[in-house]
Design brief:
Elements (H helix, E strand, L loop, with lengths): L2 H16 L4 H7 L2 E6 L7 E6 L2 E7 L4 H24 L2 E2 L9 H14 L2 H8 L6 H8 L3 H13 L29
Parallel strand pairs: 1-3
Antiparallel strand pairs: 2-3, 2-4
């Protein structure tokens, strides 16, 4: 089983059990605390587990539309990398980092959780919508949709990811991964 298959299966079990794709609702159901704090740094979010208490900390400087993605990403760390988190935690300096396997996997988890296969396919079948139009319609940055394209290709859909994602994606500022006012 490929890592993408494993992650898709994990997301499927989670959403079926709790009947939601909302990362905040899932965190609540899983007893994962979410804290909003001014971190006074470029760190956008992090996940840690200490004394069996699992916590996601979000930087209050991050714009609201990105917070949902960050929570989904950190939830991915909880579901996929809990043992690593117990040792050192995860800091999100660059959300769409492709260098570390754990970051790639958490991004795949977030894309699979937040974007339904059927909805992407339906929007893509509208010949007047571009890749970027679809991302705008979902209210997600294009790199997250690119991760979803990778998942769909892995599932056998005849779709080509843009492979546009790199580790510098959010490096220059908090929340600059898409134009908020266009949503």
């Amino acid at each position: 089983m490929s890592p993408i298959d494993h992650i898709s299966k994990a997301v499927g079990k989670l959403t079926k059990k709790y009947q939601t794709r909302d990362p905040y609702e899932l965190c609540d159901a899983l007893d994962i605390r979410i804290r909003l704090m001014d971190l006074e740094t470029d760190i956008k979010a992090y996940y840690f587990c200490q004394s069996r208490i699992r916590t996601i900390v979000l930087n209050s400087r991050v714009l609201e539309p990105i917070r949902n993605i960050l929570v989904a990403h950190e939830l991915g760390h909880d579901r996929l990398h809990k043992k690593i988190a117990m040792l050192k935690g995860f800091q999100e300096l660059e959300l769409f980092n492709m260098v570390l396997p754990t970051e790639f996997e958490a991004n795949i988890f977030a894309a699979e959780l937040l974007i339904k296969d059927e909805e992407v396919i339906e929007l893509l079948n509208d010949s007047e919508k571009s890749f970027f139009d679809v991302a705008r319609e979902f209210g997600v940055p294009a790199p997250l949709l690119d991760f979803k394209f990778r998942i769909l290709k892995n599932k056998g859909y005849r779709i080509e990811p843009l492979y546009m994602t790199n580790g510098d994606f959010l490096k220059d500022g908090i929340g600059e991964c898409f134009e908020v006012e266009s949503y």
